Structure to design on (227 residues):
């Protein structure tokens, strides 16, 4: 839609949304929940590589999902879905998505890409079904990171087995609620009879405060102390 004004693009998307709503309302066939491979198992991949030995890289019976800029390290050839769930113009004060738009265009050309909203520059991207996810449980609006959104979508689509690999939060960069929020959605999954396996250094671990007299900058100390 290059060459169109901002108002013309906005009008286009309003008409598009209206026609899409009419089409879905008139359709007599139920919309399938799983539209990619029909698989019943999904592996959600995080950034901590030391746990990657359990990733089913070469097993076509698994879907493989990841997010953000990890594609620079892994590529997207083996993946079935990718997620960029940082709202345009709202994350870290940037003007666009957190990952460069030109890179997201390439990702969307190769794999199903989920965004938090529509972007006319990335027409192949899919809007994350937030309302459907929020309707899953009474606290469905509780989200604190990309991984719990991804897990919630896997629950929504009825996957029978979910594997979480390399999802650690101790290095920072995520809200304090990110780990317990993910653990909440793990509980939702297991409560529905979904098999969940976890390869992580801190998911499901007990965290507690330690009081000490070490002096910052002069004494040695560990930010995270395993016991």
């Amino acid at each position: 839609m290059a060459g169109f004004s901002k108002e013309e693009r906005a009008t286009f998307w309003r008409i598009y949304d209206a026609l899409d709503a009419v089409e879905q309302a008139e359709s007599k066939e139920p919309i399938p929940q799983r539209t990619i491979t029909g698989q019943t198992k999904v592996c959600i991949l995080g950034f901590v590589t030391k746990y990657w030995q359990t990733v089913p890289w070469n097993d076509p019976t698994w879907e493989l999902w990841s997010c953000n800029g990890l594609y620079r390290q892994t590529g997207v050839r083996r993946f079935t879905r990718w997620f960029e769930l940082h709202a345009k113009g709202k994350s870290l004060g940037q003007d666009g998505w957190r990952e460069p738009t030109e890179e997201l265009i390439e990702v969307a050309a190769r794999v199903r890409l989920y965004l938090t909203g529509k972007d006319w520059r990335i027409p192949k991207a899919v809007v994350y079904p937030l309302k459907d996810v929020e309707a899953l449980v009474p606290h469905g609006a509780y989200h604190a990171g990309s991984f719990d959104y991804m897990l919630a979508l896997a629950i929504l689509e009825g996957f029978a087995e979910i594997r979480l690999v390399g999802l650690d939060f101790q290095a920072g960069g995520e809200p304090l609620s990110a780990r317990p929020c993910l653990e909440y959605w793990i509980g939702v999954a297991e409560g529905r009879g979904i098999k969940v396996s976890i390869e992580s250094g801190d998911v499901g671990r007990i965290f507690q405060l330690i009081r000490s007299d070490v002096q910052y900058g002069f004494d040695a100390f560990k930010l995270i102390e395993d016991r």
